[in-house]
Amino acid sequence: MTKVIKILGTGCPKCQTMTGVVKDVVSENNIDATIEKVEDIMEIMKFNVMTTPALVIDDVITIKGRVPSKDEVLALLN
Fold first, then answer.
1. Contacts 24+ apart (CB under 8 A), 27-31
2. How many structural domains comprise the chain?
3. ω into residue 68 within 30 of 0, thus cis?
4. Class of residue 6 by CB neighbours under 10 A (exposed 0-12, middle 13-18, buried 19+)
5. Where would I find the Thioredoxin-like fold domain in this sequence (predicted)?
6. Distance CA 78, CA 71 (A)
7. d(Cα 25, Cα 44) in Å, to the nearest integer?
8. Could you say which of 4, 10, 11, 12 is catalytic?
């Protein structure tokens, strides 16, 4: 089943770094996932997230306010 990954962030450097880490993990491990970048502040507010970047996997907020390591992202996706 395809995982739905959303990266919440307004385009700050940390948000861009998180996007890169997630894309790398997905491609390096052949994970079936769609990655969606959510930059609209109103959309981000719907998740009740006050600190970005935030990582949402299948509508569950897994990480917020920091950039995760590749290993951490991989563990969350498995």
1. 28/70, 29/74, 29/77, 31/3, 31/77
2. 1
3. no
4. buried
5. 5-77
6. 11
7. 23
8. 12
**Is-above-0.85 flag for pTM?**
yes
Q: What is the extent of the structural domain holding 59?
A: 3-77
CATH number of the domain at 37, please.
Answer: 3.40.30.10
Tens-place pLDDT, residues 41-63: 999 999 999 899 999 999 999 99
70 among known catalytic residues: no
Burial bucket for residue 14 (CB in 10 Å: 0-12, 13-18, 19+): middle
Indicate which residue of 5, 15, 38, 55 is catalytic: 15
12 noted as active-site residue: yes
| Two tokens, residue 63 | 């990480």
